């Protein structure tokens, strides 16, 4: 690894700091709930003669999906009962997919609003568009954090197998947990 690559990784680690993960999850959860509520209101207020568009349904589905994914991540990382289902790889994959899904919500809403937009449902559509873009950006941050956590996890597992020392706080915690588990298994 070259010096410039190491410097870039150090800068990226500072940007994608895990200490901001829980507050970002809380913000994502609030935005998802707002999108879900606005989508329901938009669906209820739509013109009865106008056809129901995919953008309204998609916003509802993606908001509900995001709520489930965020709850999975928060509960599996912060509660002892759900920790057995914790997976850094699953978090990475889910957060990368969230980027694509929220970008699709923003694109579909933009497409629907530019095709026909009248009344209150138009304003709600533009709000959902902005919230979709914000969720896309927050999901990008979460994917970056998940990538570094998964990378640290893989390093920690390799170090635990070789009984080497860990280099970061995440890997130290993982090494301690794996050593405790090996001690329980051997006893």
TrEMBL record:
Presence of the UniProt keyword tRNA processing in the record: no
Protein name per its UniProtKB record: Cytochrome P450
Regions crossing the membrane: 22-45, 57-76, 88-111, 123-148
Biased composition (Basic and acidic residues): 176-187
Region (Disordered): 167-187
Species this chain originates from: Fusarium albosuccineum
Record key words, sorted: Membrane, Transmembrane, Transmembrane helix
Segment forming the signal sequence: none
């Amino acid at each position: 690894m070259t010096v410039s690559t190491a410097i870039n990784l150090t800068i990226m680690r500072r940007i994608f700091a895990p200490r901001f993960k829980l507050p970002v999850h809380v913000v994502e959860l609030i935005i998802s709930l707002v999108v879900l509520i606005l989508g329901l209101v938009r669906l209820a207020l739509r013109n009865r003669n106008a056809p129901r568009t995919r953008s309204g349904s998609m916003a509802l589905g993606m908001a509900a999906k995001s709520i489930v994914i965020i709850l999975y991540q928060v509960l599996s990382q912060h509660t002892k009962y759900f920790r057995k289902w914790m997976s850094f790889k699953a978090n990475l994959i889910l957060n990368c997919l969230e980027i694509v899904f929220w970008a699709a919500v923003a694109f579909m809403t933009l497409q629907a609003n530019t095709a026909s937009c009248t009344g209150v449902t138009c304003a709600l559509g533009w709000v959902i568009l902005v919230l979709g873009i914000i969720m896309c950006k927050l999901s990008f941050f979460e994917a970056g954090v998940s990538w570094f956590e998964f990378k640290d996890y893989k390093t920690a597992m390799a170090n635990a197998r070789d009984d080497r020392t860990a280099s970061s706080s995440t890997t130290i915690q993982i090494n301690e947990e794996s050593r405790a588990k090996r001690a329980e298994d051997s006893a």
